[in-house]
Amino acid sequence: MPAILYLVSTPIGNLEDITFRAVRILKEASLIACEDTRQTRKLLDHYGISKPVVSYHEHNEAARTAELIRQLEGGVSVALVSDAGTPLISDPGYRLVTAAVAAGIKVVPIPGPSAALGALAASGLPTDSFRFCGFLPHKQNQRRKMLEVLSDEDCTLIFYEAPHRILETLDDIGAAFGDRPVVIARELTKLHEEFLRGSARELRVQIAGRPSIKGEITVLIAPRRPAATSAEQAEEEVRGLERAGMSRMDAVKQVAKSSGLPKRDLYRRLLKD
């Protein structure tokens, strides 16, 4: 009989943020697969856990998946962990879980910390509907295109971002979302945890004034405001801007941003004329 693949959530900073069940599973599993064995060893040593560990990251994922599946089919229980937080959430593991499911191996999640959900809960932004988008593209043109598409979403948006790109990203968020409320959650659960709130432009000024930017960063953007302008009024505003010499694309973007109506809906209505 195949053993079990456990997906074990680990602390995102504070080592106290781990469940009793997670510690027990790490002690009972035959093998622990992790992104960085040195990082995971710190956690295991803290809780007195002595188990074999193997690396499992984006560069060896294909080969290691086949190896772990063979061990699971042979009766070896495997606990998969990431460097921090919940496995597979912007971390490796999808290929292993997919292969395990296909092989009929039982997959058991061990819930726990998640930077995205922790940041959302304390952000002060709506939590009834949200979209987690992982890391934004590194290249600016791709990042701007993605943000432009997401600007029509009527739920809270959540991203992860690296500290060395946060200023550029805030520029791009400001261009796509205007003055919509933004929250930056930095170093969650750690000594220097902080939440910064304001528009993208305001946050950029605040962060740019610091001597350095460090730590894990989660960015949250408020949902699109409910439309205050009727669709018919918005159409007329677009036509007025077109008559004044503005291109339809630019006119739709401007009216959509000021009215809260989705750009795609405005385009569709105008194409019917």
Tell me what the structure shows.
The protein is α/β, with parallel strands linked by helices. The chain has three domains: 4-113, Tetrapyrrole methylase, N-terminal domain (Cobalt-precorrin-4 Transmethylase, domain 1, 3-Layer(aba) Sandwich); 116-221, 2-Layer Sandwich (Methyltransferase, Cobalt-precorrin-4 Transmethylase, Domain 2), CATH 3.30.950.10; 231-271, no CATH class. 42% of the residues lie in helices and 18% in strands. The chain is built from eleven helices and ten strands. The chain has helices at residues 20-28, 37-46, 61-73, 94-102, 115-123, 140-150, 166-177, 200-208, 231-243, 248-259, 263-271; strands at residues 4-8, 31-34, 53-55, 78-81, 106-110, 130-135, 156-161, 182-186, 194-198, 217-221. It has a five-stranded parallel β-sheet with strand order 3-2-4-1-5, with helices on both faces. A five-stranded mixed β-sheet has the order 6-7-10-8-9, with helices on both faces. It is elongated and about 70 Å long.
What labels would you give this structure?
42% helix; 273 residues; Cobalt-precorrin-4 Transmethylase, domain 1; alpha/beta; 11 helices; Methyltransferase, Cobalt-precorrin-4 Transmethylase, Domain 2
